[in-house]
Amino acid sequence: MQKSIHTKRQERIRALLKAARKKAGLTQDELAERIGAYKTFVSKYERGERQVDVVEFIALAEALGLDPKALIDQVMGE
């Protein structure tokens, strides 16, 4: 198993979360505020400088009004 923030699945997660944020009409700062994270948190994962752990992923999905399991199903379907 490749241990990297630059795997296809990480890229897909980033793309899905970024698209969902934009669709929700939120800035990176607004999303970070919703989950109680630093302003740079969203920017860094969207640029691929860091990955989100499972707890962060769930918080992001819920802050965007999405079902975390449905997002994972999208990632796994690719």
* Rg on CA atoms, Å: 12 Å
Helices and strands, in N-to-C order? Answer: HHHHH
Give the beta-strand count.
0
Structural class: mainly alpha
Note the main sheet: none
Write a brief caption for the model.
With 78 residues, the chain is mainly alpha-helical. The chain has helices at residues 8-23, 28-35, 39-46, 54-63, 68-76.
Structure description:
By secondary structure, the protein is mostly helical. The chain has helices at 8-23, 28-35, 39-46, 54-63, 68-76. The longest helix has 16 residues, at 8-23. The relative contact order is 0.19.
Q: Main traits of this protein?
A:
78 residues; mainly alpha; 5 helices; 65% helix
Topology:
Blueprint: H1 8-23, H2 28-35, H3 39-46, H4 54-63, H5 68-76
Helix pairs in contact: 1-5, 2-3
